[in-house]
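Handout, page 2. Input:
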Amino acid sequence: MNNVIMLLLRRLRAPLLVLLFVYAISIGGLVLIPGQDADGNLWYFDFFHAVYFVSYMGSTIGFGEIPYEFTSAQRAWVLICMYMTVIGWLYAVGSILALLQNPVFRNAITEQALASQVKRMNTAFYIVCGYGQTGSLLVRSLARRGIRTIVIDTNPEHLARLELEKDIHDVPHLVGDASMVRHLLEAGLDSSHCHGVIAVTDNDKVNVKIAISAKLLNKKLRVVCRAGTQEAVANLESFDTDRIVNPFNSFADHLVMSIERPSVNRLHTLLGSLPGNPYPRPIHPPHGRWIIVGYGRCGQALERYFREAGMETTVVESNPELAPDGAVVGLGVDAESLKAAGIDSAVGLVAGTDTDANNLSTVVTARKLNPKLYLVARQNFLANRRVFEAANLDLVMDVNRIIVWRVLPYLSTRFLYGFLKQTRHWSEDIAHRLVKQIEGVAGGSTPECWCVSIDESSAFGATALINKGVPLTLGAIERQPWEREIHMPAMALLRVRNGEYTTMPDENDPIEVGDCYLFAGQASAARAQRWLLEDEVELRYLATGERMAASSLGRWVTRKFT
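Output:
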């Protein structure tokens, strides 16, 4: 607020002085010029009536001559005052309008409004730096999961789109450079309700600076950062950034995993997707030699992951200086370069250049040359989504959705990211059985994932029961309230006890105070379970089969007469 007031006073100092001078001269003249009352006696304006008259005269309201008709001298002076005050007000109003249109002043107002809004927030939030294609998709996805965000972006047009979004409401935002510490602090970096910072701008250097600043200023925060190069990844790792997302590495890992262990990849896709959506389409890329068109950041990541998996690749690159040894130099959109890359004997092709038109042209040409190819294309812009859908590809690499897919499990559900990391080393058979179990309880749509903590703040009933020595097992809290023979549409994926992770815990394992459990299932089960953990009476029934009266009097009567 101090910045706004200082800027206001600085810019309006000259207009205010002009108005003050005009009004002082006008009032002084009226006080000094003599007039006549109704009886012809000499009369002078007192200071109060002079101020009153000039106030409505200067604002052009005009109540008339008071308290008596003016003399010619007074009317002459009033005539001069009219023009002086009108000119003074025109100058002042023009200065005010110019100030209101001044970008510096408007930014100061916005920053102050954001700071005030942040102070009033009493729920957890994340600061999202960058509201481009990735940022807008991420904010919408977090909003659907009930997670609040504050957005910073340098482009006012991006933030104007934010105000028009139908799916999200009341998202505080600021036009500014998020790499500047001042803007991060204004967005609530030091607030006790701020849980983390997410840097998803298109500039790796800006993202790195945001992540470093956030980590140094508030070490307790979660910091998630987008990185497009290995250099940026290494830089972020040196500052202990909590989550680094390289979309090209992530997609290459996703593609190779779907080839080698499709059930593990299916498990990650199910648990990482937004809940309540239709099941994602299974993908089964073939094992064999692949052609990679484009050897930029995307192509290099794909070639490295394929090589580490022991799979053969052929690269097509238009820049001879960038092309690796053994690569075919060409655009990849023409039949000659694809034939030179051995398209007849390849099993799949990835069009991974920075240009959507070239990628679409490549897959169309490749399909004509080899209709059996598994075709993958990189989509750089969300606006081209309909075109890529019309191309009927086997798999589309959407950089923005990949980043959101990797970030959401880490931000939205505690321990989900840790569970997914552990499942990466599972065998195909174990992952396949778990996928079938999850699909069985999810009810035909992607599952809801939630975490419960066995403590007094979130599970008062369970904690009280355990402290009284009543054995409570995992299976008891997976049963329907009032129907202990019926299982909830949910399953436990992980138990965390004293920092140790146990995947797929047995339902007969006893629950201890301090345990945390990760569940997957239907949203109705999540709501019922949260209620159940607070109800000691229902938990006792589910654990022992013993039905207790809910009130103290009822329990006394039960003990007395049974």
